[in-house]
Amino acid sequence: GIDECQVNADCYTTFRVFATSATYNGNLSGISGADQKCQFQADNVTLGGTWEAWISNQNISASDELYHSNVPYKLLNDTIIANNWVDLTDSTLDQPINRNEHNMLVSSFPIGVWTGTNPDGTTDHTTLNNCGGNWLSITNSTGGTFNGQIGNEQAKNSTWTEWKNETCNNSNRLYCFEQPILIV
């Protein structure tokens, strides 16, 4: 049978977070594709749990998709990055999300992390900074390159999620957040 705590978010004492060791271009196959990449990376090193990406498209924000925790978010080495959802989305982190699914430090030089997400967890509606609107394309119909918003995995200030825009043919990481296992 399923342990009651596996299906009750109140049983969690922390939620884990990592930046992927793998990098991807901006055609992530949408938000669901980004979530699948996070789950794959977590499963690949048997972390267990359910994992989703910190990513927004033009219609759906990370704050719509991710669980709003009342307990701390921690890196895999137990370092707290935020005390809860409110702290996570207040424009600063306690520590950067700079460890990967292997619990190894990512390179000290920031590569970048696809986010399309403002520090408060909402999508940036003002521009199409998510590779064609929904993380589905690198180039537009005229052969030009779409842009995507990235975060800086070495940052603790708001640039952790809202750093700059890059062309979607670049390769960047994803931020992956553990989610409660909810049976519906």
Task: Give the neighbour order of strands across the main sheet.
Answer: 2-8-1-3-4
The counted number of beta strands is 8
Structural class: alpha+beta
What's the N-to-C terminus distance?
15 Å
Give the topology string: H per helix, E per strand: EHEHEEHEHEEE
What would the average pLDDT be, to the nearest integer?
A: 91
Described by strand count, sense and barrel closure, the largest sheet is:
5 strands, mixed
Helix content: 10-25%
Low-pLDDT residue spans: none
- β content, as a range? 15-25%
Q: How would you describe the shape?
A: globular
The tally of helices reads 4
Gyration radius, in Å: 16 Å
What does this structure look like?
This protein is of the alpha+beta class. 15% of the residues lie in helices and 16% in strands. The chain is built from four helices and eight strands, in the order βαβαββαβαβββ. The protein has helices at residues 30-44, 62-65, 85-88, 131-135; strands at residues 15-19, 50-53, 73-74, 80-82, 113-114, 147-151, 164-167, 175-179. The strands form two sheets. A five-stranded mixed sheet has the order 2-8-1-3-4. It has a three-stranded antiparallel sheet with strand order 5-6-7. A hairpin with a 5-residue loop joins strand 3 and strand 4 (80-82). It is globular. The relative contact order is 0.26.
Properties at a glance:
three-stranded antiparallel beta sheet; 16% strand; 184 residues; five-stranded mixed beta sheet; 15% helix
Summarize the structure.
With 184 residues, the chain is α+β, with helices and mostly antiparallel strands. The chain has helices at residues 30-44, 62-65, 85-88, 131-135; strands at residues 15-19, 50-53, 73-74, 80-82, 113-114, 147-151, 164-167, 175-179.
